TrEMBL record:
CDD domains with a match to the protein in the record: AAK_G5K_ProB, PUA_G5K
SUPFAM superfamilies in the cross-refs: Carbamate kinase-like, PUA domain-like
GO cellular component: cytosol
A single GO molecular function term of this UniProt record: glutamate 5-kinase activity
Residues that hold ATP according to the record: 22, 179-180, 221-227
Keyword Transmembrane helix part of the UniProt annotation: no
Primary enzyme class: transferase
Main location: cytoplasm
UniProt key word Transferase: yes
Protein name: Glutamate 5-kinase
UniProt organism field: Solilutibacter silvestris
């Protein structure tokens, strides 16, 4: 639904009891490059009002690198390399959390997550349990990527997608993305005077993705495209997403009254089970199993993966790791938690399940990947 002017229409927020609020770096950075509470004050007031109404808010906050950059001398060299950015994240992380604590009456709890925490099932569940306990204790979790030690995440990751994963992790009803743009436009509003606001998106199609521009701020790592990626992830988990301008104080003030101006991305009609959602969206896999056509058909029909259908193993992984499953043509059709290490699967290729114990000297069960630990990407074969 497009507005007929450059102004977004006022809308009612979706019904929610628990929300994840993502705040971009540009909203926390002042004109001097350091942290500023100019925009954070209004967002903190919204969090306080929501908690007073009995709702939960989890905060995913960027800004650590920008906060750290303002603390180093100007003549310290160009701080654009990975190692330099990791150091700046370490320097700025405490300052970013302290900013939020200064604006909120409730205790603030810092939680740093990396993609490894979300890929490893045990660590994923530990993170979930910790966050749910923090909410039970009526604290406000402030989450950021663990930029100081992460390599892949700092180069490729962004807090928009992290916020979507966290929304599923804590069973949120709503993902709120506070940015320095008013919402999604049909084209880049700074470049095209004819760009029109998009008030509501029922589904993120290739046409919607084509509307996304690049990053709008020098202090952030994401742009509109990452926000659409995040909204897509959230929608598949049954979570609606609202994108709004966190620098427009009138818009932020309306949030506490259940209204906003921006873009509403609807949740999909079906909610994936939390386990299946994690399997589908967990970043990165340790290896790949190549299966024959018969195994492909069996997986599409909801079966577990047995050793008899596996014809190849790529990469090295251990028991419990997340692995991709691909057909002989190379197309990834599924992913799941492997019951056996790569070295063991190689010894079982094409063999019957009753032979597992005689081949290995032990058995973790008849299946290489149980169907409950497997998600199939049916759209790949459509």
């Amino acid at each position: 639904m497009h507005s007929t002017s450059r102004t977004f229409a006022a809308q009612a927020l979706p019904t929610w009891r628990r929300a994840v609020l993502k705040v971009g770096s540009s909203l926390l950075t002042g004109v001097d490059g350091g942290l500023s509470d100019h925009n954070a004050r209004g967002l903190a007031a919204f969090i306080a009002a929501s908690r007073a109404a009995g709702r939960d808010v989890v905060l995913v906050s960027s800004g650590a690198v920008a906060a750290g950059r303002s603390q180093v001398p100007e003549n310290s060299g160009k701080a654009d390399g990975l190692v330099q950015r990791q150091a700046l994240a370490a320097l700025g992380q405490t300052r970013m959390v302290a900013l939020w604590q200064s604006l909120l009456d409730a205790p603030v709890a810092q939680v740093l997550l990396s993609h490894d925490d979300l890929r490893n099932r045990r660590r994923y569940l530990n993170a979930r349990n910790t966050l749910l306990e923090l909410l039970r204790l009526r604290t406000i979790p402030v989450i950021n990527e663990n930029d100081t030690v992460a390599v892949e995440e700092l180069k490729l990751g962004d807090n928009d997608n992290l916020a979507a994963i966290v929304a599923a992790l804590v069973d949120a009803d709503l993902l709120l993305i506070a940015s320095d743009v008013d919402g999604l436009y049909t084209t880049h509003p700074r470049l095209d005077p004819a760009a029109q606001p998009v008030d509501r998106v029922a589904a993120i199609t290739p046409e919607i993705l084509a509307m996304a521009g690049g990053a709008g701020s020098v202090v952030g790592t994401g742009g509109m495209h990452t926000k659409l990626e995040a909204a897509t992830k959230a929608a598949k988990a049954g979570v609606a997403t609202v994108l709004f301008n966190g620098a427009t104080h009138a818009t932020v003030a309306e949030l506490a009254h259940g209204r906003f101006r921006g873009t509403h991305f609807a949740a999909s009609g079906t909610r994936l089970a939390a386990r299946k959602y994690w399997l589908r969206h967990a970043p990165g896999c340790a290896g790949r199993l190549i299966v024959d056509a018969g195994a492909v058909r069996a997986l599409l029909n909801g079966a577990s993966l047995l050793p008899g259908g596996i014809v190849g193993v790529e990469g090295e992984f251990t028991r419990g790791d997340l692995v991709d499953v691909a057909g002989i043509d190379g197309n990834v059709i599924a992913r799941g938690l492997c019951q056996y290490a790569a070295v063991a699967v190689r010894r079982m290729l094409g063999r019957h399940t009753r032979e597992i114990e005689s081949i290995l000297g032990y058995s973790y069960g008849d299946t290489v990947i149980r169907r409950d630990d497997l998600v199939v990407f049916q759209e790949v074969l459509a």
